[in-house]
Amino acid sequence: MQFSSSLLENAVNEFAKLPGIGKKTALRLVLHLLKQDPGDVHHFSEVMSRMRSEIKFCQRCFNVADGDICSICANSMRKSEMICIVENIRDVIAIESTQQFNGVYHVLGGVISPLDGIGPDQLTIEALIHRIEKEQTAELIFALNPTIQGDTTIYYIQKKLGTAPSANATPLRITTIARGIAFGGELEYADEMTLARSLQNRLPVDKYVSR
Amino acid sequence: MLRIESLALLQFKNYSDRVFKTPERVIGICGLNGIGKTNLLDAIHYLCFTKSYFSRQDATSVQQGKTGFRIEGQVVLQDKPEKAVCVLRENGKKEFSINGQAYDKFSQHIGRYPCVVIAPDDASLITGSSEERRKFLDSLLSQLDAGYLQQLIVYTKVLQQRNSLLKSFAETGQKDLSLLEVIDQQLIPAGEYVFNKRKEFLVSFLPAVKHAYLDIARQQEELHLFYESELLRAEFPELLRATRQKDLLSQRTATGPHRDDIEISMGKMLFRNIASQGQRKSLLFALKLAEMDVLQQEKHFPPLLLLDDVFEKLDEERIANLLEKVCIKNEGQVFITDTNKERLTLQLEKLGVAFGMIGL
User: Fold this and answer.
1) Is the confidence metric ipTM above 0.90 for this complex?
2) A-chain residues near B183 (CB < 8 A)
3) Where are the bilayer-spanning segments (chain B) (predicted)?
């Protein structure tokens, strides 16, 4: 791509760094901004740069937040004794969209995968364990991807909790989200492992029927 | 019954755009060296296993100077026609579909079209390292049992994680042993599954190989085949505990089914050290023919058979003997390559089977 202005070229190159954006799309976006009122564009860039510099991570759950504590943790209507453990912020957004969960979260920031150079120290596992000791946590719900690394992470945290001295009077309940055939999916096309797992963990019909 | 009716190749190896009709049960593929006989067999291998028999990288199967390839097969499976398509896109992404329905995971396809290949390089199955024999065993068991392939994939992935962890211990000097234990807990069930399946299978398979060998060699030789695995002597968790210190030092996993082997001996010596070329070849055929029998029994229809240049170094009598086994006694579709069209035609005519001949 040939540009008559290096300013334009730099802007295009920056946009093209974003995921899912190629050079052509980047050019379209930049040319669009060029047509806008300079004030609007200034506002746009300010919003972006403020987002990056001022955003904070919740000190309790590591979700994104405007202050020290995110809006979910600060909400007194939510059950703080129920913690849902997720890999990243996107998973929080996904579970929030279901409007089915009224507890709080803990964002790990990834899953254990030595192959990718990610060990327990890179994640917020230590913080989670302190948190459980400090707060009166009654239930941990693991909502991690059903992969080998996800399983490793679950077993590791479970093991850590098993050895940590527990100050809790009530025993901690540890669960994972159900795995199996997708809603609206077809048995025929489910892979054997999923189907086998679904059979093993079958449900009584009265619990199955959605209410 | 499984039969490939036609094969359309686009930018695959030396074929820019060609269609081969293969409705007969026995197909001869003849032509000079380097003309693409084996490439045609490899295209069929792609349709059966979603990958090349010879190369790990799909890119090496693309015609020179091109990007991407397409293999389309008109297949008849249990009297029902279906279209199998394997496409390598320009971006290097591979897709595999049956009647337009793409697979999420290629492993789901393995076993749908059972297939046995006999190629000259296969001698390494006898003479090469234990990895070759595990590969043979894994390929066969995966076709028989989809659960085996799943567990093998899990085992391999967890093993990679474990080895990376051992390396990171050495690099950082910090040893999180509880993480190692967690990974071992994941490794153990998958490893035990793989081991038990191999053990169970080889109990009947190895005697069948021996029987087939004696049949081909037509002489009494003291041949022994046995499964060699550390898991035969101790439980997997125990083995892992015992080698832990060694693993931490060497930064890899010293025990487990990834070190299994099939030991072959003649008399008291290792077969690969003392066997003649003819004996090796006979044992190779014995392994493959036993594989064919097992697949037929389990699938209730015979597998495809791909014979690549197997007649080299065989005398007339042995060629006739082998052809009778694979074309008369076996009812599946057979593809045979040979450089000598007259020789192959003559042999097939002598057998009295209907056959098709592709001259390249």
Assistant:
1) no
2) 152
3) none
Residues of chain B neighbouring A152 (CB-CB closer than 8 A):
161, 179, 182-183, 186
- pLDDT for the residue numbered B320: 82
pLDDT tens readout for residues A18-65 = 999 999 999 999 999 999 999 999 999 999 999 999 999 999 999 999
Residues annotated within a binding site of B for ATP: 31-38
Classify the C-alpha dihedral B121-B127-B129-B130 as positive or negative: positive
A192: contact with B, CB 8 A cutoff: yes
Average pLDDT over all residues of chain B: 91
Nearest CB to B164; choose among A115, A155, A156: A115
